[in-house]
Amino acid sequence: MPAILGQNQYGKAETRVVRITRDGAVHHIKDLNVSVALSGDMEEVHYSGSNANVLPTDTTKNTVFAFAKEHGIESAERFGIHLARHFVTSQEPIRRARIRIEEYAWERIGTSGATEGTGTGHSFVRRGQETRLAQTTYDGERWEVISGLKDLTVLNSTDSEFWGYVKDKYTTLPETHDRVLATDVAARWRFGWTDDEQETPDWEESYEQTRRHLLQAFAETYSLSLQQTLHRMGARVIDHRGEIDEIRLSLPNKHHFLVDLEPFGLKNDNEVYFAADRPYGLIEATVLRDGCEARIPVH
Ligand SMILES: O=c1[nH]c(=O)c2[nH]c(=O)[nH]c2[nH]1
Fold first, then answer.
1. Which of 145, 169, 173, 189 is most buried, taking the most CB atoms under 10 A from its CB?
2. What are this entry's molecular-function GO terms (predicted)?
3. What architecture is the 8-141 domain classified under in CATH?
4. Which CATH superfamily is domain 150-299 in?
5. What pLDDT digit, counting tens, does each position of 226-261 carry?
6. Residue having the nearest C-alpha atom to atom 7 of ligand 1
7. Does the pLDDT value for residue 115 go beyond 70?
8. Is residue 243 within 8 Å of residue 210, measured between CB atoms?
């Protein structure tokens, strides 16, 4: 007697779909991580390897992208209901579909808290606090204070281009004049304050304002590359915060690839994206006040 198959399910896990809806200059974003688990008459594929009842997991992923285009994403629940109903009613062997969705919330830059009044309509910051960093070093004479932040996730759904780059025989990247630009900002900045004789900066105010300038520069830069955006972010901090001499930024390019919906007879008008988590471009640089030394270590 062969061992008996117990409960089983299959499907594509963690399809990262980002749906942008463009209402003129005001964009709306839905960012989901969708996992599909199907079950039904699946004994044969396990026992004999016959795929006759198997809708490929690749198809379940494509369905997520196609439904994002066709039906939009009003709420995760509604989207999940649509998908589950589709799999169960369109494929006879599939008896049960479980759709699990995680939703990542985004806020507009410029409509809340520290960024009040600076909205672009297409600039977002992921909800949930970033981590604030502080490093203080003293050798008995001089101080070095480096503050910073990490995991401040931001996204522009337009005003980003990338073209005119070097092309060699391995280059396949298409040039683009309208892409999504997203990154997790990691930044460290060094204060000019080194001496107990000098008045100390207001650390809290300095942090809040520096964070605000980073967000505002990200939102307001029409970007031809993430490198250019990085420089604008650093330069804005140096220009506006006299207490800071140096800032080092590390910006992963969180790629959002347009999904090809042509095979399903659908046009993707910059609406449905696959949010890849790796590999990612990593753009890093120090921006300095003229005449100051670079002392934030590279790592
Ligand atoms: O802003 C970018 N800078 C790059 O250096 C680069 N390289 C790449 O493939 N895409 C991008 N985007």
1. 189
2. urate oxidase activity
3. Roll (3.10)
4. Urate Oxidase; (3.10.270.10)
5. 999 999 999 999 999 999 999 999 999 999 999 999
6. 281
7. no
8. no
